[in-house]
UniProtKB/TrEMBL annotation:
GO terms for cellular component: molybdopterin adenylyltransferase complex. It comes from Acidovorax soli. Belongs to the MoaD family. InterPro entries: Beta-grasp_dom_sf, MOCS2A, Mopterin_synth/thiamin_S_b, ThiS/MoaD-like. Keywords: Nucleotide-binding. Signal peptide: none annotated. This is Molybdopterin synthase sulfur carrier subunit.
Length: 84
């Protein structure tokens, strides 16, 4: 079991109603963690759903779903950002 901090940004934060949460997980990758959060249902399932564009960062570096989670990690989920 790993202790991690999950942070949510922008529209995902608004939907979930929290900017961050500590959690314990057995997930080994970012993708597995996303699936674990989706399985909670409700706002987590809607805002992190497969098929939705969601960016992920591991310890403040943009990462792919295959990135390996370690104890004490900080994970962030946020929608793609466009600028102009």
């Amino acid at each position: 079991m790993k202790k991690i901090t999950v942070r949510y940004f922008a529209s995902i934060r608004e939907a979930i109603g929290a900017g961050q949460e500590p959690m314990q997980t057995t997930a080994t990758t970012l993708g597995a963690l996303r699936d674990e959060l989706i399985a909670r249902g409700g706002a987590h399932a809607t805002s992190l759903a497969r098929g939705r564009a969601v960016r992920m960062a591991l310890n403040q570096a943009l990462s792919e779903e295959s990135a390996v989670l370690v104890d004490g990690a900080e994970v962030a989920f946020f929608p793609p950002v466009t600028g102009g």
